[in-house]
Design a protein that fits this description.
EC 4.1.1.33, diphosphomevalonate decarboxylase activity, binds ligand DP6, lipid metabolism, ATP-binding
């Protein structure tokens, strides 16, 4: 027989950014982070995991093409072996090989947090396949985190924090960093008016991967050390409060400031890393001019390790924000922008 399970996981967009690893082996972060999980309509990964005694080795296909050797990668192994250890009947799966096929519903190269959705879907599909049982709440997120840090936050909906955790907290099996896991702060029904608008500025592959970039930042940026010690702890507390109170003014300001600081850390990295481009910076200016004109924060930008903008706004301002951006970017290149903005409205 072949056993199969198919799941889908959405991506998430951080408001307080994860940037820096404390323990590269276990993929734990230098600071807490928090994100909004988008809904399942648009930006998601759909993954099927299958097991059979007829399979000779683990294999992985991404968007229909086999990733040769990917099944031996540290990230993939951590996920497969991690979930196998939690299987309801571990002896059944121990020697079975796994085939995984995953599709993104958005361009992988665009750098729209595709690894977050991808590894979250991988862990969820494996967990479903093997009826895995957590020995404590959040354990599956500690496995997804080893696939890609940001993936742990996509296992829950709503507003989700990734707690940095501590090396001293271990499972019964002796795995350290057992509390470096995702925790849901508010579920997906808490703030139904919140929207994310994605502006695809470029769909070219980024030149510095997050993993490489954050490693250089940890080694060279003094601003990152200040951020870890002083800035993030305060911001985490403030933004959780803002989200729970549905206070868009504070939520937006904290989100924009944290994006700005993350990109400042990149500039403070030696040699410096630049993810935003001129179009990204123009969007920043438009957002501030619009909020100033409105006399309140109606839209907030945030940028990950690439030039694409994610705009958080409220349902009542979505049409206005879309029209504003279409006004400034009417050229063919920006026809994509308007179309993407149209197509990627998300109930967050
Ligand atoms: C800028 O989760 O992709 O999007 O753990 O090395 O796979 P790895 O990194 P990854 O980094 C994401 C960085 C970020 C900020 C964030 O999502 O918090």
């Amino acid at each position: 027989p072949i056993w199969m399970a198919t799941v889908s996981a959405p991506t998430n967009i951080a408001c307080i950014k994860y940037w820096g690893k404390k323990d590269a082996k276990w993929n734990t972060p230098t600071n807490d982070s928090v994100s909004v999980t988008l809904d399942q309509k648009d930006l998601r990964a759909v993954t099927t995991a299958a097991a059979s005694i007829k399979f000779e080795k683990d294999r992985l296909w991404l968007n229909g093409e086999e990733e040769v050797g990917a099944s031996d990668s540290k990230r993939f192994r951590a996920c497969v072996d991690g979930v196998k250890a939690l299987a309801a009947d571990p002896s059944k799966w121990k020697d079975l090989k796994i085939h995984v096929s995953s599709y993104n519903t958005f361009p992988t190269a665009a750098g729209l947090a595709s690894s977050a959705a991808g590894y979250a879907a991988l862990v969820a599909a494996l967990a479903e396949l093997m009826s895995a049982k957590e020995t404590y709440q959040g354990q599956l997120t500690t496995i997804a985190r080893q696939g890609s840090g940001s993936a742990c936050r996509s296992l829950y909906g709503g507003f989700v924090a990734w707690k940095a955790g501590s090396a001293e907290v271990s499972t019964e099996g002796g795995t350290p960093w057992a509390d470096s896991m995702a925790v849901q702060i508010a579920d997906e029904n808490h703030w139904p008016e919140l929207r994310a608008v994605i502006m695809v500025v470029s769909d070219e592959k980024k030149d510095t991967s997050s993993t490489a970039g954050m490693s250089t930042s940890v080694a060279t940026s003094t601003l990152l050390q200040h951020r870890i010690a002083k800035v993030v702890p305060e911001r985490m507390a403030s933004i959780e409060k803002a989200f729970l109170e549905k206070d868009f003014e504070s939520f937006g300001e904290l989100t924009m400031k944290d994006s700005n600081q993350f990109h400042s850390v990149c500039a403070d990295t030696y040699p410096p890393i630049f993810y935003m481009n001129d179009v990204s910076r123009t969007i920043v200016r438009i957002v501030h001019a619009y909020n100033k004109w409105a006399g309140e924060t109606r839209v907030a930008y945030t940028y990950d390790a690439g030039p694409n903008a994610v705009l958080y706004t409220l349902e009542k301002y979505v049409v206005e924000v879309g029209a504003l951006m279409a006004h400034y970017f009417p050229s063919p290149a920006t026809a994509t922008t308007a179309a993407a903005a149209d197509g990627y409205f998300n109930d967050s």
